[in-house]
Amino acid sequence: MYQKLNLLIFVGQSGGKEKGMPQVKQIQIIKDFREGRLNCLVATCVAEEGLDIGEVDLILLMETQKSPVRLVQRLGRTGRKRKGRCVVLVTKGKELEKFHAAMAARKAYVNSIVNSDVIKSSLRQYS
User: Fold this and answer.
1) CATH topology of domain 1-54
2) What global pTM score does this model have?
3) What is the mean pLDDT of the chain?
4) Range(s) for CATH 3.40.50.300 in the chain?
């Protein structure tokens, strides 16, 4: 089964020397994606956080980040309402090492949240 890609590119409002995308157009693209008029969104890092993009089934990352917070933000874009996948394309060498470091830091970051006495205490209080 094949599905035609109906896509647009989503970039930030400023592109350095090049003019970025106006906020009005950004809002319309996100609305079109959430309402199903677009089924693919090609985005820069501007779409990583702070936007209600809607249901995302697949994220394809063309680079990796060493920051566990940015990695969690990127991975968290999929699988909110239904099962989703994230694929990270990396090259051997430094980029692969950076990816492994980010995944290890992410695991430690998540474990520190899950094992937090403050969070456990709050959960017991409201359960």
Assistant:
1) Rossmann fold (3.40.50)
2) 0.65
3) 81
4) 1-54
